[in-house]
Amino acid sequence: MAGRTDKTISSSVKGTDAEKLGFIEEMTRNVDAVQERVLAEILGRNAESEYLKECGLAGSTDRAIFHAKVPMVTYEDVEPYIRRIAAGDGGSPILTGPEYPISEFFTSSGTSGGEPKLLPTVADEVDRRQLLQSLLMPVMKQYLPAGGQQETGTGKVLYFLFVQPETKTPGGLPARTFVTSLCKSQHFKNNASHTYTTSPVGTTLCQDAFQSMYAQILCGLCQRHAVSCLGAVFAAGLIRAIRFFQLNWEQLAADIETGVLTARVTDKSVREAVAGVLLRPDPDLAGIIRAECSKGDWAGIIKRIWPNAKYLSTIITGAMAQYVPTLNYYSGGGGGLPIVSTMYASSECHFGINLRPFCDPSEVSYTVMPNMAYFEFLPVDDDDGGNNGDSDSSHQQLVDLARLEMRREYELVVTTYSGLNRYRVGDVLRVTGFHNSAPRFRFVRRKNVVLSVDSDKTDEVELQRAVDHAAALLRPHGVFVVEYTSRVSTESIPGHYVIYWELLMNNKEMNGDVLDKCCLEMEEVLSSVYRRKRVVDSSIGPLEIRVIGSGTFEELMDYAVSRGTSMSQYKVPRCVTQSPHIIELLDSRIVSSHFSPMAPHWAPDLRSRDSQE
């Protein structure tokens, strides 16, 4: 693979860090050999599974036979097997071998039917994920200033993590988010006890979002000079934390001044955890907080409150890229603090790491580590044009990791140790380069997803269904939806969905209350993940419908045609989040604006489909 490589990772580091960097080099020199070994290992340990037997593998670990006999699948294809495991099927091994039973399920984004996915995992998967995570800091240290806090080990991380309520399947297996599983693991608790983070474990494990956030910020303030990094899983979560600080700084300052935690925090474990940090009254620190926060100008507030912060750590690819300007505003400086996206992972498995962590957010790419799973790639048709429509892929051949082409886009397909075989993850990636023989990928988008504020993922089918349900409320009034599009608004915090409607009124007047109800009706139809984010996490604001003047969508088409689009092939874009000129046009034609009058219904329900019938 000569000529297809990045610079070699620095060999100037010593000890364990050098071993980790050497491991990266070893894994990326001949990815095809590593991938062949990984696939043989997966097929060998799961040879007795019902699924692989049905595919006709007969215990074979040969890659060519695997390619010929095992089909590419979606979640809907494997859901019947997953439901049987969740229900406690005591028969033969279903997805994995008898020595590697499914140990728990990670709950992922809602399917088109609105229910969360249950993604299987096995006990030793945690070792692979921890191995990948152990590579991050050795890579980071190559780019950090010599003698900095991160180099000496004195710096701490103010990283906002939150657990979600979990449940058990009818068969008794835990069903919870990956982050919840991580936070409750012994590995996480041991790391936290080593004081790498400002947040004691008790503050993270509290399921009350207000109390957990309040306590984590308070502990971060008490250790403000030790904080070298602030972060959250997604950029939206980090912004939500700063917004929470904006709303609650006066009470936080009062607690620090008196050395007494507010009575609003009632959780005993949280109070005990905070007591180990909020040791005594600190009127000087309270004064600094009041002086900075009372100015009314929150530009650069992160550096003003945490002066030794060197970077932000959060995911800012895909839909999260919309939050980069806001993070730059809050972190101050020329372009704000560097924003680092270290790792590419999902509930299915961990994929790769960013070997150039301090690159510009628009240039973030991840190098896939070939020992994590067996990776294949479905080429995205050139005529797909980045649209969200699904193209017919039945005739396309999957491409191995070692045979990808520069600048091509592919949909990720994985075979995992946890029993998912040739599973379409739904991520579209673009090859941006190579490290040794391992491709680097830029995350382009979630396939079919049009709207996302936090970790919600609303596709075009879900959006259409929500619009249809809401539009039905208009018909008794003789009013109809002529056309619509949508976007995510981050002008206010938290962000929210904006739906633009052009209505056929027939000279009728439309009651604003009815349109408010249309907003709520749309939310009731959206996925359970969206509704949980609205109701439990408060990380998504009320949905907004903006009624625009008659003829606006004709102007939209004229604009597209003037820029070279064929009129005969023009389709109204269902999402315009990344189109500032179109947004400006739509917003200049607003007749009225309406919001959901209340939060939609949400209740956790992870029962198997069989138990519901």
UniProtKB/TrEMBL annotation:
Location of the GH3 middle domain: 366-446
GO MF, one example: acid-amino acid ligase activity
Start and end residues of each GH3 C-terminal domain: 462-579
Keywords recorded for this protein, A-Z: Ligase
Pfam families: GH3, GH3_C, GH3_M
Highest taxon listed in the record's lineage: Eukaryota
Keyword Coiled coil: no
GO cellular component: cytoplasm
Stretch forming the signal peptide: none
InterPro entries: GH3, GH3_C, GH3_M
Keyword Ligase: yes
Similarity section: Belongs to the IAA-amido conjugating enzyme family.
Listed PANTHER family: GH3 DOMAIN-CONTAINING PROTEIN (PTHR31901), PTHR31901:SF60
Protein name, as recorded: Uncharacterized protein
Taxonomic path: Eukaryota, Viridiplantae, Streptophyta, Embryophyta, Tracheophyta
